Amino acid sequence: MSSLAEVFEHPALTSAASALATLRAAAGRIGAPDPVAALRHLDCSPSAIRTSATAVDAGALVLTSAATEFRGGVDAAETGGSAETFGTWADTVDGQYGAAARAAAATAALGLRIADHLDSLARSVSSEVCELASGADDAVSAVLAGDRSAEVVSAVSTACTAVVRTVQSRIAALSSLAAELEPLTAPAAQLS
What we know:
Helix content: over 70%
Oligomer: single chain
Strand content: under 5%
Number of helices: 8
Structural class: mainly alpha
């Protein structure tokens, strides 16, 4: 029986999928949950998130620089009869620049925290599910050799279920990340 290697965005999950290949094959023979399919729910690319966060951070620096230049221009222009009206408008725009720069910097920092959290999560889940699978190696070999005794079928099914539950529990723990993302759904500043 030939099978294609599963490729995930996160390399630790690719390694785990490879380690779970025989458990998956045994699961398929007895109708147990697919342990490799469960890993798909945690697949992520922390490096892509870090790249995006770095780009947002660079944008924050550009905004900060533009705000500084703008403030310098405002200070130079605040002379004459309409200086008060101009100053009020300029202070509003300056505040918007500052708010946008702070929001971009906060977004970048959050992106890096999320990338680190997802990376750690993928690595720890990979390690844990590999241990679960290795604990069922003898039963997996027996099922793949044609043994359908209750003992080996139960051991394989239990290992597969444990992998699925491990993934599900880690997905549930991601709700804290969703809560951190909530403030980013509203614009930081309404530019006029």
